[in-house]
Design goal:
Elements (H helix, E strand, L loop, with lengths): L4 E4 L3 H14 L5 E5 L3 E2 L2 H8 L5 H4 L1 E2 L8 E5 L2 E5 L4 E4 L2 E4 L2 E4 L4 E3 L6 H4 L1 E2 L3 H12 L4 E7 L9 H15 L6 E6 L10 H14 L1 E4 L4 E5 L4 E4 L4 E3 L2 E5 L1 E3 L2 H5 L22 E3 L12 H20 L9 E7 L5 E7 L7 E8 L3 H16 L2
Parallel strand pairs: 1-2, 1-9, 2-5, 9-20, 11-18, 12-13, 12-18, 13-14
Antiparallel strand pairs: 3-4, 6-7, 7-8, 10-19, 15-16, 16-17, 21-22, 22-23
Helix pairs in contact: 1-9, 2-5
The chain binds flavin-adenine dinucleotide.
């Protein structure tokens, strides 16, 4: 008998998991993917859009091209999840599963930072990046803040990339001398998992005159005074605020009883939640690992292996906790770290120093996913 797999969300985790099950089972797979959007956008494309490297239209990858044997794609918004019955409500209908996988990513909680929606510019959503692009075009003097409102947040190096790209953008427009840039991060270093990459970022900030404030987050914006208030009470004036809002799992996950403190607790090696045959992968899961696409993919590999082992016997391969963090340095250089959190006794980190030639790595990263998931 077929076993029904219900995958909630078609991001990095959901698409990779469905692809792996389709590869293994072909037409006998019984996978339903429920996703609210009509197109996928890589996280890093948002920064490309914000700084005018790409258009919104060019970075959209329509799901009509996500076609796999044994996989049904349903474009609906999920409104309720019952992890005990493994039943999901979406678009007014209900879906039942033998295996349920939460791959819904992280939502942005703008309201958690008073003043952010009113006077700041978040660049973590596609729409926010598009709006930030317009705002940037009109910014030519005064203090700019790139600020983060909470931890954990997606792609730990993204705010650093944003600050360096802002420097490059203002320099090219000939107005850098009239602007200051401050980066506020709630981390102990720009990339805690890679001391080498952190060191390269700190050096780049020093060279470009970007002020770095570590171990702090932005608690509120006061639009009347054009002032950002940090969690240690520091006040910083701004003329431009580019923000990473606080994150949490989407509302239906919060309401389902699956989440604790904003995230879904799982067993790190198996990605199982406390509910039988219910898994959580990617940004939604409380793994403690970086919230990045490649880590969602390694979690997807572990869950595919677990489901296939339960269906056909054999051993499941545990979560490797492997992934790469790619970092734009704003001047055309790209550096990255290949990270392996779980296969050995301690974190292994391989550093690739920033270089212009390194950009080819990111091009390959994107092209391989476009080919694998969308046949492009
Ligand atoms: C600015 C920025 C830069 C980044 N750069 C990188 C990078 O260079 N490399 C990298 O690896 N990662 C990067 N990331 C992080 C990366 O995008 C995420 O970590 C990754 O997308 C997580 O995958 P996921 O499958 O867990 O969630 P997602 O990819 O977010 O997928 C979740 C899906 O669930 C859907 N969904 C949510 N709620 C509902 C609902 N109620 N009903 C139906 N569907 C729903 C969403 O529409 C979404 O498609 C970046 C992120 C940002 C914001």
């Amino acid at each position: 008998m077929k076993s029904r797999v219900l995958v909630l969300g078609a991001g990095f985790g959901g698409m990779e998991l469905s692809t792996l099950l389709s590869e293994a089972l072909g037409e006998t797979a019984d996978v339903t993917v429920i996703e609210k959007s009509d197109a996928f956008v890589f996280g890093y494309s948002k920064i490309d859009v914000m700084f005018g490297r790409e258009t919104l239209e060019a970075v959209r990858l329509p799901y009509r091209n996500f076609v796999k044997p044994g996989v049904r794609f349903v474009q609906e918004t999920i409104t309720a999840i019952d992890p005990v019955a493994r039943r999901v409500t979406a678009g007014g209908g209900t879906y039942e599963a033998d295996f349920l996988v939460i791959a819904l990513g992280a939502d942005l909680d703008l309201a958690a930072t008073p003043g952010l929606a009113e006077d700041g510019n978040e660049f973590y959503s596609v729409a926010g990046a598009g709006r930030a692009r317009e705002v940037l075009a009109g910014f030519s003097k005064g203090p700019a803040i790139v600020g983060v409102s909470g931890f954990p947040f997606k792609c730990p190096p993204a705010p650093s990339e944003c600050a360096l790209m802002l420097h490059d953008h203002l320099t090219k427009r000939g107005v850098r001398g009239a602007c200051e840039i401050t980066l506020v991060l709630p981390l102990s270093s720009p990339m805690p998992a890679s001391p080498d990459l952190s060191g390269a970022l700190v050096a780049a900030f020093a060279e470009t005159g970007i002020r770095l404030l570590l171990g702090r987050s932005v608690k509120a914006l006061e639009p009347g005074r054009k002032t950002a208030v940090l969690d240690d009470g520091t006040e910083l004036p701004y003329a431009l605020y580019l923000g990473t809002p606080k994150h949490q799992v989407p509302q239906p996950v919060l309401a389902s009883g699956l989440a604790e403190n904003g995230w879904v607790p799982i067993t790190l090696r198996t990605l199982e939640t406390r509910f039988p045959d219910v898994y959580a992968i990617g940004d939604a899961a409380a793994t403690g690992l970086p919230k990045a696409g490649s880590f969602a993919e390694s979690a997807a590999r572990a869950v595919a292996s677990s489901i296939l082992a339960k269906l056909g016997g054999g051993e499941a391969t545990p979560n490797s906790g492997t992934g790469s963090c790619l970092v734009e340095f704003g001047d055309g250089r790209l550096g990255w770290a290949d990270l392996d959190f779980l296969t050995g006794p301690k974190l292994k980190s391989i550093y690739h120093a920033p270089s212009v030639a390194g950009r080819a790595h990111k091009v390959r990263f994107g092209a391989s996913r476009k080919a694998r998931w969308f046949g492009l």
